[in-house]
């Protein structure tokens, strides 16, 4: 038993003991016989021939005097009952705290698997709520730590390949001076890949650090027009097109324009990358009560149904991602950006062919 148990136990026991003592004393004082008042009337003289002394008045004789003892026995019984009830009550209060303490100590050592709420399933009070809150916190921390470990592993894996090629190219350039021009081009290409990967990781880190909480008023129509113009120019070499019709109503969003542009760009470029040559990527926009709904539809191979929930995870590359280059960070960045702006994002395979990525962002007003 811990210190809190003994504090509860002694406090409750002493309080009940004092109550028993006070009640017993009160009962004893009330039942004790009052003292016989002294008589002030002198007895009459005793006649010489009388057998008995004359009586004064006709008062009955007083009852025999009874001594009232202090109620030791019932008080001892009450004290024993108080002792048991204090111990049970103290154990009832401190038991969930001991469970919670053991779970916190395990978490401090890195073990986030212990849960408290199953041990308090019979309770329905504030301590049980505290146990459930701890379990929720431990689960969130476990998910976050696992995500960070997985991200660190993936980053190490992605950096290892270009660094190995970079070292190989440098070694060959030293051994084959006549191939320096070709090998320097290889070194530059690998350096750019590493730089791009680090840039995308920094973007992810910046979003998760809540740096996206910028509240600029953004004209989404202008942003998308510029973005689609750039993407169309780059996709023209493969005869790919982006079809969209700007809505008549102005589209206002609030947030970080640079990050929102990055989110839309990643989704559209991803759709162009997986679409075959000559295909058309479709962008649709519709307004709902409080959100703008965007959909980007491509004609690519789609995603296996079991992987749809994973395509927004960092470094996810499905089985069809072997051909197109990429680190699998584009959609992960898009999801972080959308969620940081209070929106939602999802994906589904199209019935005919390809993938449909949708996102919803809260509406803003020009005069907000």
Describe the structure.
- This protein has two domains: 1-23 and 86-210, no CATH class; 216-362, 2-Layer Sandwich (Heat Shock Protein 90), CATH 3.30.565.
- Helix 3 packs antiparallel against helix 4 and helix 6 (257-274) packs antiparallel against helix 7 (330-340).
- A five-stranded mixed β-sheet has the order 2-4-5-7-6, with helices on one face.
- It contains seven helices and seven strands.
- By secondary structure, the protein is of the alpha+beta class.
- It has helices at residues 3-31, 72-108, 126-175, 180-208, 220-235, 257-274, 330-340; strands spanning 216-219, 241-244, 252-255, 280-287, 291-297, 344-349, 355-362.
- A hairpin with a 3-residue loop joins strand 4 and strand 5.
- The protein starts with a helix and ends in a 6-residue tail after the last strand.
- It is found in: Cell membrane.
Q: How would you summarize this macromolecular structure in one to three sentences?
A:
Residues 154-365 form the Histidine kinase domain. One of its GO terms (molecular function) is phosphorelay sensor kinase activity. With 368 residues, this protein is of the alpha+beta class.
Strand fraction: 5-15%
H/E series: HHHHEHEEHEEHEE
Structural class: alpha+beta
Number of helices: 7
Largest sheet report: 5 strands, mixed
Structural domain tally: 2
What is the mean pLDDT? 81
> Radius of gyration over alpha carbons?
43 Å
- Count of individual beta strands: 7
Q: What is the 3D form?
A: elongated
The first-to-last residue Cα distance is 59 Å
The share of residues in helices is 40-55%
């Amino acid at each position: 038993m811990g210190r809190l148990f003994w504090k509860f136990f002694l406090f409750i026991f002493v309080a009940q003991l004092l109550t028993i003592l006070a009640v017993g004393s009160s009962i004893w004082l009330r039942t004790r016989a009052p003292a016989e008042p002294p008589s002030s009337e002198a007895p009459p003289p005793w006649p010489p021939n009388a057998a008995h002394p004359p009586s004064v008045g006709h008062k009955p004789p007083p009852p025999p005097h009874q001594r009232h003892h202090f109620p030791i026995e019932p008080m001892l019984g009450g004290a024993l009952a108080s002792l048991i009830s204090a111990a049970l009550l103290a154990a009832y209060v401190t038991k969930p705290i001991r469970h919670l303490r053991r779970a916190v100590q395990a978490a401090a050592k890195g073990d986030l698997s212990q849960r408290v709420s199953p041990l308090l399933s019979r309770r329905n009070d504030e301590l049980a709520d505290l146990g459930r809150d701890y379990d929720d916190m431990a689960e969130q921390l476990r998910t976050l730590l696992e995500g960070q470990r997985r991200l660190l592993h993936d980053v190490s894996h992605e950096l290892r390949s270009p660094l190995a090629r970079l070292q190989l190219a440098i070694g060959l350039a030293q051994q084959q001076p006549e191939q320096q021009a070709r090998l320097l081009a290889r070194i530059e290409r690998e350096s750019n890949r590493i730089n791009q990967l680090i840039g995308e990781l920094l973007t992810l880190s910046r979003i998760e650090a809540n740096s996206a909480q910028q509240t600029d008023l953004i004209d989404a129509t202008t942003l998308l027009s510029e973005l689609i113009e750039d993407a169309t120019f780059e996709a023209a070499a493969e005869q790919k097109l982006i079809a969209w019709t700007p809505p008549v109503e102005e589209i206002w969003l609030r947030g970080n324009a640079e990050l929102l542009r990055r989110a839309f760009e990643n989704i559209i470029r991803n759709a162009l990358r997986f679409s075959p040559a000559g295909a058309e990527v479709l962008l649709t926009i519709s307004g709902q009560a409080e959100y703008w709904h965007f959909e980007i539809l491509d004609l690519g191979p789609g995603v296996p149904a079991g992987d749809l929930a994973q395509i927004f995870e960092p470094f996810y590359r499905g089985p069809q991602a072997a051909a197109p280059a990429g680190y699998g960070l584009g959609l992960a960045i898009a999801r972080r950006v959308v969620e940081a702006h209070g929106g939602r994002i999802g994906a589904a395979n199209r019935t005919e062919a390809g993938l449909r990525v949708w996102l919803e962002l809260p509406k803003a007003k020009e005069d907000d």
